[in-house]
Design brief:
globular, four-stranded antiparallel β-sheet, mainly beta, single chain, 250 residues
């Protein structure tokens, strides 16, 4: 993993971050939540990296998938994990960690994935693949203390802005490409940000909600670069120019 300074273009590698995937920053930008591959069993576990001290801390004993969020509120962590059903069958579900109840599965989230949590730690957002479609998935939200989940739009890979006022997400198209959109947490004020013939994926939104960053492979399909676009008009700029860059966290 590496830190990219958008003003200077400088890239700073994060020490000891081999086999780690960035998930989310804390609201104040002091800690980065990552999923790290355990070298002995190959599973993913959640860790935080302290930006000031460089220290690593494991924050979850449960195995994780590629989707998680962190907040300073009633919900401390959210992640995509596994539930073992009767007979040993496994299914993907959404897990949360709270001070009151520790690790727990969010009700009615079987088959859901790519979760994130709002800055106040009360609402989670995630996606679920529609059973009748190989392409479409729906974005849903759930609130702490309620067993209900609420579908709000079609799309995948939803991420909150750090202030909790916006959600950025990816919408796949039948043509095979995908675009980046933003919306309010209730599904209102939707705005399409990118309109290209390429696949844009794994979006993250700036803390002030004015820009989005995403990965896209263009030209040389063996490489994926990061792009930043203005939400207001979709004007984009390529910010990495070589290698394989994906799954940005802002």
């Amino acid at each position: 993993m590496a830190l990219l300074d958008l003003r200077s273009g400088e890239v700073h590698n994060i020490p000891d971050s081999d086999n780690a995937f960035p998930m989310s920053w804390t609201r104040d930008g002091s800690h980065l939540l990552v999923a790290r591959v355990d070298p002995y069993e190959g599973s993913l576990f959640l860790w935080t990296w302290n930006r000031a001290s460089g220290a690593w801390s494991q924050v979850s004993k449960e195995r994780s998938g590629l989707g998680a969020g962190i907040a300073d509120g009633p919900i401390r962590l959210v992640w995509h994990g596994i539930q073992v059903l009767s007979g040993g069958k496994r299914t993907g579900v959404i897990w949360i960690n709270t001070d009151e109840r520790g690790d727990q599965i969010v009700p009615n989230t079987q088959g859901c994935m790519t979760p994130d949590v709002s800055a106040d730690g009360r609402t989670i957002v995630f996606a679920r693949r529609e059973a009748h479609s190989k392409l479409d998935s729906v974005i849903l939200t759930a609130t702490l203390g309620s067993d209900e989940v609420h579908p709000i739009t079609r799309g995948s890979h939803p991420r909150f802005s750090r202030d909790g006022k916006w959600i950025v997400f990816q919408r796949d198209l039948s043509s095979g490409n995908s675009d980046i959109w933003v919306m309010r947490p209730d599904g209102g004020s939707k705005r399409q940000v990118t309109k290209t013939d390429y696949v844009e994926e794994f979006p993250a939104i700036s803390p002030d909600g004015r820009f989005v960053v995403y990965a896209s492979a263009r030209g040389d399909v063996t490489e994926s670069h990061l792009f930043v676009a203005r939400v207001s008009d979709g004007v984009e700029q390529e910010v990495t120019h070589s290698g394989q860059a994906s799954r940005p966290a802002w």
